[in-house]
From TrEMBL:
Record-given protein name: NADH dehydrogenase [ubiquinone] 1 alpha subcomplex subunit 9, mitochondrial
Domain of life: Eukaryota
Domain NAD-dependent epimerase/dehydratase residue range list: 66-277
InterPro entries assigned: ComplexI_NDUFA9_subunit, Epimerase_deHydtase, NAD(P)-bd_dom_sf
Gene3D superfamilies attached to this UniProt entry: NAD(P)-binding Rossmann-like Domain (3.40.50.720)
Pfam families the record matches: Epimerase (PF01370)
Family according to the record: Belongs to the complex I NDUFA9 subunit family.
Assembly information from the UniProt record: Complex I is composed of 45 different subunits. This a component of the hydrophobic protein fraction. Interacts with BLOC1S1. Interacts with SLC2A4. Interacts with CLOCK. Interacts with RAB5IF.
Gene: LOC106463988
Length: 404
């Protein structure tokens, strides 16, 4: 497409009044003009009949999966697991293409494909789903931005994706919600409760309206490499120098964190499980812990004990920390590491719903925190120059006693 481009840059800085007009083709981030705006017919090819190979990374298992939100924390684990079993993965992305290029390693040559998209551009959504028989929506955000509110990202976006997936004849649709999502989440600190959780609940309803057979996952806090649970508590900004403020010292909050690889494996299993269609799964870890004790344990693992100056305090009486949250929101705006919304959500007790299936129903053997967390927190240790192998450090402390 030839677009007339007016470069006014020169006129502003160098030659006032002079406009340079070129007839150069202008590179657009994406171009969907070849895509009809309205409904797509279902794919004509029977993809499973094209299966080939023995089932490893260099084979094709008959699944073409579009993974929205693949650039995120869970997305990388999921794409790797899909690539490992010979899935062709379509990755819609926004922003810089080099940021997600590393995901190309997850599959064989030509099996991981990238397409630019925008959540509110339906043409681009059609384009990335029209050849797929599986769609997985991992899009989510812990904080609102200037361009996207919680409702945009968790309700309207998923609704559009689910509707278009249905139009395209997609056979399996997986959607990520969140544990404790509720129409009116029980407030802990904020009078209105967590807006994130309310929008996740509305997102589930929107997806079910458009794609009733969708498989919905509600994960608790997910931990693993580059997570936002362990790293949140190990970040200096979450502390008041060496004191860690928690609401009521974290004594009234119970958490049941789940390992990222278990969640990713469960999503893959759900695609192949005919019984999973239309069900909601709650992704929680094998044990429940009191938040305060859990955070103490993280600090012990990081060698940040009472000798180092660590102390758990009560956020209700910590006016310095409250002022810091207030100023962070006022000055920096929406900051993922410190906001009232984040603090509210971290103090909501994980409450799995009775009778709702869990990851174990999808054949997952859940990972225990003590088997992973010491490794994950290793980079955050105080006195990191000492080598544990020299015997200078004793064995990692045992995790706190689980609660029922
Ligand atoms: N991690 C947890 O502890 C946890 C707990 C409960 C529920 N969940 C839910 O599980 C899902 C996956 O979690 P995660 O930890 O992998 O999330 P994440 O690391 O924050 O990744 C979110 C993904 O969503 C994309 N995204 C966000 N806003 C977007 C927008 N406006 N338009 C297009 N793409 C957008 C991001 O793309 P960019 O890279 O371009 O920003 C990224 O790929 C999310 O829905 C999350 O809410 C996670």
């Amino acid at each position: 497409m030839v677009v007339v481009q007016v470069i006014s840059r020169f006129s502003r800085h160098h030659l006032p009044g002079l406009y340079v007009v070129t007839t150069q083709p202008v590179q657009r981030r994406y171009q969907c003009s070849d895509v009809p705006v309205k409904k797509f017919p279902p794919p004509g090819t029977n993809l499973p009949s094209l299966k080939r190979g023995t089932g490893g990374r260099s084979s094709f298992n008959g699944i073409v999966a579009t993974v929205f939100g693949a650039s995120g924390f869970l997305g990388r684990y999921l794409v790797n697991k899909l690539g490992k079993i010979g899935t062709q993965v379509i990755i819609p992305y926004r922003g810089e293409s080099y940021d997600i290029l590393r995901l190309r390693m997850c599959g064989d040559l030509g099996q991981i494909l990238f397409f630019p998209f925008h959540l509110s551009d339906e043409e681009s959504l059609y384009k990335v789903m029209k050849y797929s028989n599986v769609v997985i929506n991992l899009i989510g955000r812990d904080f609102e931005t200037r361009s996207f509110t919680f409702d945009d990202v968790h309700v309207e976006g998923p609704r559009a994706i689910a509707r278009i997936a249905k139009d395209c004849g997609v056979q399996r649709f997986v959607h990520m919600s969140a544990l404790n999502a509720a129409e009116k989440p029980k407030p802990v600190i904020l009078k209105s409760g967590s807006h994130f959780l309310a929008s996740k609940w509305a997102g589930e309803q929107a997806v079910r309206e458009e794609f009733p057979e969708a498989i919905v996952f509600r994960p608790a806090d997910i931990y693993g490499h580059e997570d936002r649970f362990l790293r949140y508590y190990s970040h200096f900004w979450r502390r008041n120098i060496r004191h860690l403020p928690l609401w009521k010292k974290g004594k009234e909050t119970i958490k049941q964190p789940v390992f990222v690889s278990d969640v990713a494996e469960a999503i893959v299993n759900s695609i192949f499980d005919p019984d999973a269609v239309g069900k909601t799964f709650e992704a929680v870890g094998p044990r429940r812990y009191e938040l305060g004790e859990l955070v103490d344990w993280f600090h012990l693992l990081m060698k940040k004990d009472t000798d180092w100056g660590y102390k758990r305090t009560d956020l209700r009486y910590d006016l310095i920390f409250q002022t810091r949250i207030f100023l962070t929101e006022k000055i920096i705006g929406k900051y993922p590491l410190l906001s009232w919304e984040r603090v509210e959500r971290e103090h909501v007790t994980d409450t799995p719903t009775r009778g709702v299936p869990s990851l174990e129903d999808l054949g997952i053997t859940l990972t225990y925190m003590e088997d992973r967390v010491p490794f994950e927190l290793r980079p955050f240790r105080a006195l990191a120059y000492y080598d544990a192998e020299l015997g200078e450090f004793e064995k990692p402390p045992a995790p706190p006693a689980p609660v029922m």
